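Q: Could you fold this chain for me?
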Amino acid sequence: MGHVVGLEAPTQALLESWCATCELRAGCHTPNATFVLQRMPSSEPTARFEAERPRLLAFAYRLLGTRTDAEDVVQDAWLTRVVTNLCLDRRKSAHATREAYVGPWLPEPVATEGGRLLGYPVDPEAISLAFLTLLERLTPLERAAYLLAEVFDYDHHEIGAALERDPAAVRQLVHRAREHVQAGRPRFAADRSTQQRLLESFLQACLQGDLVGLTSLLTEQVVARSDGGGKTKAALKPIVGADRVARLMLGLASKGGAADRMEFAEVNGRPSAVGFLEGRRVFVLQLELDGERISVVSMVLAPDKLAGL
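A: Sure. Below is the predicted structure, expressed as structure tokens.
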């Protein structure tokens, strides 16, 4: 069997034991064609890995919520089964870190200009900061099963092969995950023009100190989360309720915030506001809408999470 350049010995061994017997079902080769590396020129596995890298990066980012971890995992493997299990292992090791994290944890923002995440086309409804935060309610296995089923359109047998679970167990994982996600998602989707319009209205009300106008844009149970990572000022707990969130945002705006310049950009599939201070990114602000009102305000201020945007 050929050797895939860049893989550590344990991963290479797993690939050797699996690829010689299994059929790939991720759309990265001719359907139902058995993949046997010894029949390929030595350059072909690397070329196939490079072709599949954007898709796997997009999957790993959704599962982990940070671009750096996603890139690390995909660098180690290029088969969906291996990437899935490496992500699950990484989430287990990150659990203690998350427990000790200062304040709310939000995903690392990524640019999605042109509707692409890390070079791979994405559904903007499945990549927003609020949606990825919602996925944190799921167990790692539920999250992996849900993403493979809902985002990548895998069937229960294919998911079972990736997670080493039988189809009946996968069916239950996906069912539970769908229930959790459905309970936390907005009732009414908003189109892009509405998202942009409400973002502009939100920022204008903040800058003008318009408490009544700002409150009118929010749902009664709106939630504001700010992630400073313990390295910059941010609320240590989610703020809930229209009046409390509005007063928080007006307080930040009245103090000048942390930026001297702000730009609009597409981040995680949503129109977002990016703040700069002396040319350096200092925050990303994104809104989640429920119809014509704002249901979630997400602010990422942690310097480490903005470095790669």
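A (continued): The CA atoms of residues 18 and 35 lie 10 Å apart.
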